[in-house]
Amino acid sequence: MSSYSETEERQALREAVHKLASGYGREYIEEQARNDGKVTALWQDMGKHGFLGVNIPEEYGGGGGGIGDLAAVLEEASRAGAPLLMMVVSPAICGSIIGRFGTPAQKQRWLPGIADGSFTMAFGITESDAGSNSHRITTTATRDANGGWVLSGQKTYISGVDEADAVLIVARAADAKTGKLKPCLFVVPTDAEGFTKQTIPMSFMAPEKQWTLFLDEVHLPADALVGDEDAGLLQLFAGLNPERIMGAAFSNGMASYALAKAVAYAKDRNVWGQPIGAHQGIAHPLAKIKIELEQSRLLQQKAAALYDAGDDMGAGEYANMAKYAAGEVACNATDVAVHTHGGAGMTQEYGLGNMLLAARLGRIAPVSREMILNFVAMHSLGLPKSY
Ligand SMILES: Cc1cc2nc3c(=O)[nH]c(=O)nc-3n(C[C@H](O)[C@H](O)[C@H](O)COP(=O)(O)OP(=O)(O)OC[C@H]3O[C@@H](n4cnc5c(N)ncnc54)[C@H](O)[C@@H]3O)c2cc1C
Fold first, then answer.
1. Tens digit of each residue's pLDDT (9 = 90 or more) over 311-351
2. What's phi and psi for 362, nearest 5 deg?
3. In sequence order, what are the residues at sequence separation of 6 or more whose Cβ sits closer than 8 angstroms to the Cβ of residue 369?
4. Residue 192 forms beta bridges with which residues?
5. Taking a C-beta distance cutoff of 8 angstroms, is the pair 187, 168 a contact?
6. Pick from 87-96, 100-109, 153-162, 231-240: least confident
7. How many angstroms is it from 312 CA to the middle of ligand 1?
8. Closest residue (by CA) to atom 41 of ligand 1?
9. In ligand 1, which atom is closest to the CA atom of 126?
10. In a mutational test of the pocket of ligand 1, which residue from 94, 121, 126, 163 has the highest number of ligand atoms less than 8 Å from its CB?
11. How confident is the model at residue 5 (pLDDT cuts 50, 70, 90)?
């Protein structure tokens, strides 16, 4: 095994996940999306096999691996046409933050369920008036007379809240010393009083729904606060790097799926006495995607390796670049796949048109392409801050 290969264990994990997810495949996802269904059967099956919790410590029911393993799981499910969006959120963001910063009691309470998929936690930071500028979020947390918390505010584009038992909400609390507002993380049960949600009609079809959340004086016990009240920003970044790595895995898997579909069609479709893949006009764009995809997968693996080695700074830079590269290759791959299929690429039967739209999510969330370019310009290249 060369040092550029993943371990045999990781490769075996990939194979097992791909096999399981292929049993569901794209048809399953599309059927659920069309009929307002959920991916619960696949989620539970993946949980039962331990795939959803590969990154959670063994003592809390997980596999004891790292984010590189979890990203491999999501990439393989996505490559099989059956990605699970909530993996980006529940085990990756919430599992990482609670695993690193939660109290022993919080870990015991939430991690085993996150690991086996029986407890799903959504994640809410985005607000409509703040957008990419998360320093502007206004959801506030104030102490009540009993040492508990009261949360008020709104969140938007929060994925899968209807499937979640709780949402990890980023709110701002007043610093007792300076009076300034600082970000803090709270686990809010989805059945809490004062917590309501409204679905956002999206233009792409997916089983996971997006939600606007309203928190109207939601009362929480003191231990709903995860970790240290004064280290919210650090804790947040411990969750956002895994989110970006998982976003990359989602997009890379989608690009692999689209490329495989396109290659198979290019070998089969024959309109000039030879397969259309014999024409360089078809073959070269596919070869280009293959190269871009391998570059992008290497970035994903490097970002994950840095995170798992405890290098949060290095992981931050590479997780951003990995997410950027994967968002680009997913958009390019789905575009080329549609084009390779000609008219068939626009039909529901081949399902690539919807994927073309869905692929654009990788350019927008969890952090947009432009915000990554801002980050790289400033932090990697030392250019002045532009925003
Ligand atoms: C399907 C979906 C699922 C999501 N799931 C979640 C979730 O579970 N939890 C959650 O908290 N959030 C979630 N989000 C929100 C997502 O993270 C945001 O949409 C994203 O961060 C961009 O914010 P925005 O939509 O407000 O865009 P805006 O901030 O309004 O940006 C609009 C455009 O302006 C550009 N722009 C903004 N600022 C700059 C700048 N300084 N320089 C250059 N260009 C700039 C952006 O790149 C973008 O192209 C989800 C979004 C979608 C679409």
1. 999 999 999 999 999 999 999 999 999 999 999 999 999 99
2. -65, -20
3. 324, 327, 328, 363
4. none
5. yes
6. 231-240
7. 23
8. 387
9. 11
10. 126
11. confident
pTM: 0.97
Q: Which residue has the higher pLDDT, 181 or 219?
A: 219
Structure tokens given for 234 = 């650090």
pLDDT number for residue 2 = 59
Ligand 1 atom index nearest CA of 133: 29
Closest CA to 55 of 72, 80, 76: 72
Q: Angle CA(334)–CA(338)–CA(340) in degrees, nearest 5?
A: 115
Q: What are phi and psi of 121, to 5 degrees?
A: -120, 120
Report the separation in Å between the CA atom of 244 and the middle of ligand 1, taken as the mean of its atom positions: 13
Query: What size, in residues, is the chain?
Result: 387
Q: Is pLDDT above 60 for 1?
A: no
Task: Name all residues whose Cβ lies below 6 A of ligand 1.
Answer: 89, 123-126, 131-132, 157-159, 210, 361, 364-368, 370-371, 374, 387
Q: How far is the CA of 172 from the centre of ligand 1 (A)?
A: 19
